[in-house]
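Deviations from the work plan: none for this task. Representative record:
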Amino acid sequence: MKTCLVVDDSSVVRKIARRILEGLEFEVTEAEDGSKALEVCQRKLPDAVLLDWNMPVMDGFEFMGHMRRLPGGDQPKVVFCTTENNVAHIAQALSGGANEYIMKPFDKDIIADKFAEVGLIPVGQTMV
Amino acid sequence: MTPTEYEYLRKFLRDHSGLDLSADKQYLIESRLLPLARKAGLSGIGELVQKLHGGPSALVTSVVEAMTTNETFFFRDKVPFDHFRDTIMPEVIKARAGRRSVRIWCAAGSTGQEPYSLAMCLKEMGAALTGWRIEIIATDLSQEVLEKAKAGIYSQFEVQRGLPIQMLMKYFKQTGETWQINPELRAMIQHRQLNLLHDFAQLGTFDVIFCRNVLIYFDQDTKINIFNRLARQIEPDGFLVLGAAETVVGLTDTFRPIADRRGLYKPNDPRAAAARPALAGAPPRLAVLAGG
């Protein structure tokens, strides 16, 4: 089973994301900010990170920089999931090592599409 | 909705658009036509049917459009676009190296995601197509849908379905909450209104025809008729691309499936097809060739 770390300071968003990702057969762990997410990654890197941008303590972009520098930190697929929906932010995320980018609000179809795009799930996997 | 009203709408749609609803699509009619009825100031489906009974009105077009518009997104099903890039275009580039032009028809272009996906594929091929004349003709039954396709403006939700983020960054311009596809890609596509039930010979012949997820709505005879007419608009070495749930097998021998390329078809040589005895269940092409 593939693992996904959901990083978001909103417990509601984490809960929705968890339900969708479990439906896609991921084992889900959660973190409420970048710093806590980094602790999780230092113990064990996930296969995927669904990552909010604006969070207290450490934001998503800074977290990604730290994670990418961990041994093996280039492996996890990072999919941003944020209300920052402008070209400048998207470009910054991609050049900083993000694999995909979701602009909130999201739904299960968008998550499935984006995860398929980066090879985390087979193309055309539909949810019931 | 009463059974009589449902039957009336079924027949109405079959006559006006070829749409062939099975006996159990009440929910589809209600979900699409109830909002339309309300918008027109009518009490419900019953009153809408009465209006349609009354003869020609603007409602006829609205009803047909509401029922035939389908969900669509960029690079829908993905595989056909991989085939387009890895199988179709390499062969076309080789075969048309002399005249350096390619004509593509999206026969159910809808709101533009499919033709624009093809345009992006072609752009990504870069140097291989430098100096080529590329024509993409996108047709759809609905004028409203065509206007949207022409504008190439999509909501944030729409650009996140099937479109890789790098493609969004490369080929779209953000304006507020919407994204518009670049003028250069828009210029690659001609949008035309067309009902597949009507004659389309005037479109000319094509190297590639995408006709996905539209024939599923037609009855058997209409499908056969459309396939036979499509065969006349396709180059002998051209490609037909159908949707995942569609096939020519058992319907016509004007096209044959390509092995290991799901959804891809080639036209059969019409003379060979005519010479072949019309067997039920369409014999495999290889067997015919082996038999001489």
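The CA atoms of residues 41 and 234 of chain B lie 45 Å apart.
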